[in-house]
User: Fold this.
Amino acid sequence: MSQQQISLPAKLINGGIAGIIGVTCVFPIDLAKTRLQNQRRGQQVYKSMMDCLVKTVRSEGYFGMYRGAAVNLTLVTPEKAIKLAANDFFRHHLAKDGKGLTVFKEMLAGCGAGMCQVIVTTPMEMLKIQLQDAGRLAVQQQKPVMMTPTKLVATNAVLSRSYNSGMVISAPRAVSATQIAKELLQTQGIQGLYKGLGATLMRDVPFSIVYFPLFANLNRLGKPSPEASSPFYWAFLSGCAAGSTAAVAVNPCDVVKTRLQSLNKGASEETYSGVVDCVSKIMQKEGPSAFLKGASCRALVIAPLFGIVQVMYFVGVGEYILDNSPLRLLGP
Assistant:
């Protein structure tokens, strides 16, 4: 890769298309992951991923599984594009004399990519989580034992009027990502959209450090010769294996990030002042196993997502589009 001239527009197109396809395929599992991670001990609404999906369809309809998908579909293009292009950029500049990168330099390139992507990832996740978790909160509010008027007042004020109609048993009023973003900007400024930035960095930087070197080495095993490219199916399997491994490895950070970015809380659900406070309270009240909540869901989300990304990337869809359209003027 270091011997090739990097076509940034092509990488952006590859990452964008792959992200849209991948998110469309796996978003319901991602919704289940968010709801499972936000559950507290003794307040479980869902028993497993399948139980969550079945109950979501029953109570919210088929499209209930795609709550927050519009945010992801809108922002996943720049997110994946930045991640892949940044990794390529750092690998290109860390390579010397056409020689292969050491594992350390591959990890360094991944670290750089992870730090770049949080510019888009943090607000995207912030908005998505509010929409994904609304259904779980609505189910909790329909249980009088678990949600009293006093506790309703004690919940986070931000966005509360968007989700709570004032009655315990009523469903939340529909709210859009645009409404959430507007209210956050009005009440908290730009930092409102970047709540949980530290936790996002804690998740995405280690993820990229694990993912990119692991993928590069797994993909190298499928090459018929050092100069040749690996078959597309091998790139897909390598992306799946590397993605799922990295996803499970950083799942504790993802749990912390999800908890910190959830503005609305259910009955008796505590709030957190920061990463350290969140980790401490989870350990005290739920135990170490809580940090693995949603790990299988996250692996199922990330594996095909990054498999599809790498297939698009290595097949060269972006290059083909640039070569066969007026967009070729954007090429190098």
